[in-house]
Design a protein that fits this description.
This protein is α+β, with helices and mostly antiparallel strands and about 325 residues long. The protein folds into 3 domains: about 5-95, no CATH class; about 100-205, no CATH class; about 225-325, Arc Repressor Mutant, subunit A, CATH 1.10.10. It has 11 helices and 19 strands. The protein is flat, with a radius of gyration of 25 Å. The structure holds zinc ion. Zinc ion binds next to loops.
Length: about 325
């Protein structure tokens, strides 16, 4: 999977948005896990309580039986294995947060807050105006194609904008010709920096997003949110705090600084630069968290005894680091 984390996350939104049903945490395939976790972070997906009454026996994997509560624990009574614990995780499920999606799409079109969101029918909303024309959001194209009256109700005098995922009708270029201008979610919108952007037909915002990850300051992107390590093809995305620490170190020009100076320049409350790179036990092995730590280890030089931090020599480019060496 070579998609960026953002692109993979947006693809997952488009895919999940169509059904409108929840999906179980356990059923998330490993290749989608990183994208899913990114969506959880962005609050693009929300947990739902699922009233699941049956569970598969976690012991033999053969029998399904009703779930019951035994003191604090959930169990199922397997006819062969007896009472078997059911992990709460098995019952955790997710849905795309429709309020999040509508809010982000409205922002992509700069819809003013006084324009209301109107639910036209199940799975179809009018989310505001773009270029003085109503924008409809639907879970699937067929919700509209099966009920032409819905299109008519969303439409005033003019042709509508229509946002839906593309998948169901691959190959059909303009299934709603005449009735609406169709904006397939996968093609005309991107997710970046927690926001959804509209790609105008003439420009490609997608290229811009990729370009913004390209190294500008040494291995860092222009906004320090991305870093590309030597010998690695893809850039690593950093959190805001991680980017602030590395930017501060960059601004110190490779000179060693005490931790509190670095952190105050970064505008952070933690004690030491490493604090914002530490990988919590539950994120061990997750590239989303391990990547920034790897970058930190490769790029930051610590003097334990003096308690000072600097970018490793060479990070700022040979010319600059030798100039700094002469100065110090
Ligand atoms: Zn069993």
């Amino acid at each position: 999977m070579n998609l960026s984390r953002n692109a993979a996350a947006w693809e997952l939104v488009c895919q999940r948005w169509q059904s409108g049903h929840h999906w179980f945490d356990d059923a998330i395939p490993p290749v989608q896990r990183t994208a899913h976790e990114h969506l959880v972070e962005l609050k693009a997906v929300k947990p739902v309580a699922v009233n699941q009454q049956f569970a598969l026996c976690g012991h033999c994997g053969l029998h399904t039986a009703p779930i019951f509560r035994d003191k604090a624990a959930l169990r199922m009574q397997c006819p062969e294995c007896g009472p078997v614990a059911v992990a709460a995780r098995d019952l955790k499920a997710w849905v795309v947060d429709e309020e999040w999606l509508i809010r982000k799409l409205r922002a992509a079109f700069s819809v003013p807050t006084h324009q209301e969101v109107v639910r036209i029918t199940a799975g179809v909303w009018r989310i505001g105006l773009h270029q003085r024309t109503a924008v409809l959001l639907a879970r699937r194209l067929d919700l509209l194609l099966q009920q032409p009256s819905v299109l008519a109700r969303g439409r005033g005098e003019t042709v509508l904008w229509l946002i839906t995922p593309k998948r169901l009708r691959e190959g059909d270029d303009d299934p709603v010709a005449g009735a609406a201008r169709w904006l397939p979610m996968e093609e005309r919108f991107t997710l970046y920096g927690g926001n959804v952007s509209f790609i105008d037909a003439d420009t490609s915002r997608g290229d811009e997003a990729i370009a913004s990850a390209d190294p500008v300051y040494g291995p860092f992107s222009a906004d320090f949110r991305w870093v590309r390590l030597q010998g690695e093809g893809a850039s690593i995305e950093l959190s805001e705090a991680q980017a602030a620490v590395l930017k501060a170190l960059w601004e110190f020009g490779g000179q060693s600084q005490e931790a509190h100076l670095v952190m105050s320049r970064a505008g952070l409350a933690s004690d030491k630069p490493i604090d914002v790179f530490k990988v919590k036990a539950q994120h061990k092995g997750n590239e989303r968290y391990e990547g920034p730590l790897r970058a930190y280890k490769a790029l930051v030089k610590t003097n334990q005894r003096a308690g000072t931090y600097a970018l490793a020599p060479g990070v700022m480019g040979a010319a600059i680091s030798s100039a700094v060496a002469t100065l110090s």
